[in-house]
Design goal:
heterodimer, A: mainly alpha, B: alpha+beta, six-stranded antiparallel β-sheet, 9 helices, binds adenosine-5'-triphosphate, binds magnesium ion
């Protein structure tokens, strides 16, 4: 910025800080709450400073036999969520990079139609088509199964579209040079297209992992067997106990732990993630 | 090592655009052929059909006696250098050079030896471990050349490989390509729209216009005996002067000027006359001359280009710098340095100067 007006600087910073506080406050409250015992939390004032039950709460949520009545233990649900998120991420990327490859590099009848059909699914996210999808999954007997949990979420086009856009920026000469160099279509894909897509894949990994990790509605519909419960469902059920007190300190500890995998992934992939969104290798 | 035969090859793009029209060229083993012509004349299309990157609509392409129409580029035993180099950005220079060999199952030791040899020839040894992104344009160009030569193909195909370089580098790379091609003796087809590049590199030039061959010949043949007004205006810098004239018996009239042809008139009636700027000279005393009105002068150092008009037709002459130039000059030209073309079709009438000079004849037989 070339402007140098103190008031404007003050204003922009004020907005920035306000925005930060709005985002950070619930997280802060969750962290604080996870360090108190249930008695403190049930009294009317919300504590703003850390309490002394940190280790106790976290070890209980991680090692307890059941997160709340009727639920499997926390780490079991975390594992379910992890499996679901990873399968969705890998599945979506695999399917969409291959279909984008087909659409951009092969001439086949109805190619354009195929692209538009894929494109239209962008307008139909899971939530919109959830009832018909549920019916199909139920009819196929896929309720309470990994397939039922993941496949309907894998089948969507977001990533296909992104890969197609990226492939179209790869110069035609790259393919031609590879053909002259004796690379067949799949060899071109493995040796050249895939490495060139590295940053895009990295960025999509982060986005899709989080997408899978926070799924709530779909897992709730297709699973009735607690063995398939995911974290997001479990957390919800922990606060809807019928009788007795809600173990807020455990709910908060669970919530804080549930935030960690996406954060770790973003930190770990940061370099790729930022590059993938802002620049492309020629 | 192999010659290339292009027989009656046409390209019709979907939509009916006929980009190449029944082109036939016989290319000898080891020959350096340059396809030259204005933008959109079908040079790249023709080259890409030879490479196998574009389907051949009609006709036949053979490389070393094998008809290659239905073969994949890799099976045709050719290597191609692209205008934008098309290096693989995620591979090091070494991997770029080795990739084609690896795909062919060449033993590792052999790959190493060949890459080392190419790197030495092109002086890219120090960059073998770098990615293309970390190279200058000239260095990338060398790597692209290297990728072609490691394969030891039957033919090199170049599509305007120098057009992304600055003028100076272009001249030096031009020399290098020529030297390399001589040394390896590999049949080459080179596409360019730069007539100077074409003249300097070619054993034989193929001048294309609108998808058709205008002329095939050695650079000097094409220069001294252009087959049409198109070739005449395309090859040579400054472009050949083309003016309309009229033949009356033994005399050529260009506007008010009359030139005595000493019995060499090839036709009669209206013609298009071609005069090379360097064939025009200041008239010596007693020489038949015509009046030339000066418009402006361009200094080139060794020579100066004098632009003006004769009657109402524009003319450019290349004159030595040591003389004073007046507003009106008397110019002359030897009758056998004149080129005649029919006014209707622009086709050449009669032989060119080249065919009549021993020096040029030698050049032709050499090619
Ligand atoms: N895929 C295509 N479909 C239809 N027409 C095409 C296609 N590719 C090229 N053409 C046409 O074919 C003609 C020849 O194209 P080509 O690329 O061979 O020209 P060029 O001589 O290489 O020109 P330049 O010097 O600009 O590269 C042009 O008129 C072009 O518009
Ligand atoms: Mg071209």
């Amino acid at each position: 910025m070339v402007e140098n007006r103190p008031f404007l600087t003050f204003l922009t910073h004020a907005f920035l800080i306000l925005g930060f506080v709005i985002v950070a406050l619930p997280v802060y409250v969750a962290i604080i709450a996870s360090t108190h015992d249930v008695a403190t939390l049930m009294s009317n004032t919300v504590p703003l400073w850390p309490g002394s039950h940190f280790i106790e709460n976290y070890s209980e949520i991680l090692t307890g036999a059941s997160a709340a009545n009727g639920l499997p233990n926390y780490s079991h649900m975390a594992l379910n969520s992890l499996v679901m998120a990873v399968v969705i991420t890998v599945g979506k990327i695999t399917i969409s990079i291959l279909s984008a490859f087909a659409i951009v590099y092969f001439r086949f009848p109805f190619r354009q139609l195929a692209f538009w059909i894929i494109f239209v699914t962008l307008m139909l996210p899971v939530e919109v088509r959830i009832m018909p999808t549920y019916k199909i999954v139920a009819d196929l007997g896929m309720l309470n199964s990994w397939a039922g949990l993941t496949i309907p979420l894998i089948a969507s086009a977001t990533a296909t579209f992104l890969f197609r856009q990226f492939f179209m920026t790869v110069p035609d000469e790259m393919l031609e040079a590879a053909r002259v160099d004796g690379a067949g279509p799949m060899k071109f894909f493995w040796d050249i297209l895939l490495p060139l897509s590295r940053t895009n894949i990295g960025a999509l990994c982060v986005i899709l992992f989080i997408y899978g990790w926070v799924q709530y509605l779909w897992p709730m519909l297709v699973t009735t067997d607690p063995g398939y419960y995911t974290l997001m469902m479990g957390m919800k059920r922990m606060v809807t106990v019928q009788d007795g007190v809600i173990q807020w300190q455990l709910v908060m500890a669970g919530a804080v732990l549930a935030m960690l995998p996406p954060i770790l992934l973003v930190i770990f992939m940061q370099r790729l993630f930022i590059r993938g969104l802002t620049e492309t290798e020629k | 090592m192999a010659g290339i035969t292009i027989a009656g090859v046409s390209k019709i793009y979907t939509g009916g655009v006929k980009a190449v029209k029944s082109v036939s060229i016989d290319i000898a083993d080891g020959e350096f052929i340059v396809l030259v012509g204005p933008s959109g004349c079908g040079k790249s299309t023709l080259l890409r059909m030879v490479a196998g990157l574009e389907a051949i609509s009609e006709g036949e392409v053979s490389i070393g006696n094998r008809v290659v129409n239905r073969m994949e580029p890799a099976e045709r035993d050719i290597a191609m250098v692209f205008q934008n180099y098309a290096l693989y950005p995620h591979m090091t220079v070494y991997q770029n050079l080795a990739y084609g060999l690896k795909n062919r199952g060449t033993p590792k030791a052999e790959i190493e030896a060949r890459v080392a040899e190419a790197a030495r020839m092109l002086e890219i040894g120090p960059y073998l471990e770098r990615k293309p992104r970390a190279l200058s344009g000239g260095q990338r160009q060398r790597v692209a050349m290297g990728r072609a030569i490691v394969r030891k193909p039957a033919a090199f195909l170049f599509d305007e490989p120098l057009s992304n370089l600055d003028a100076k580098l272009r001249v030096s790379m031009r020399g290098e390509i020529k030297r390399l091609q001589r040394r390896l003796g590999t049949t080459s087809i080179y596409v360019t729209h730069d007539q100077l590049e074409a003249m300097t590199l070619a054993d034989r030039l193929v001048v294309l216009n609108g998808g058709e061959i205008e002329q095939i010949g050695s650079p000097l043949e094409v220069y001294h005996a252009p087959a049409s007004t198109f070739v005449a205006s395309f090859i040579g810098s400054p472009a050949m002067n083309l003016v309309s004239g009229e033949l009356h018996g033994d005399k050529l009239a260009i506007g008010p000027a009359l030139i005595d042809l000493h019995g060499k008139a090839p036709a009669s009636g209206p013609v298009t006359v071609g005069l090379r700027a360097e064939d025009l000279h200041l008239a010596r005393p007693g020489e038949a001359a015509f009046a030339f009105k000066l418009d402006y002068i361009e200094e080139l150092g060794a020579q100066r280009l004098v632009h003006g008009h004769v009657g109402d037709q524009l003319l450019t002459a290349s004159l030595p710098t040591e003389m004073d130039i007046a507003d009106e000059l008397m110019l002359a030209i030897d009758a056998d340095r004149l080129h005649f073309f029919t006014t209707a079709t622009g086709k050449r009438i009669g032989d060119g100067y080249a065919a009549r000079t021993p020096q040029a004849a030698r050049q032709v037989s050499h090619a």
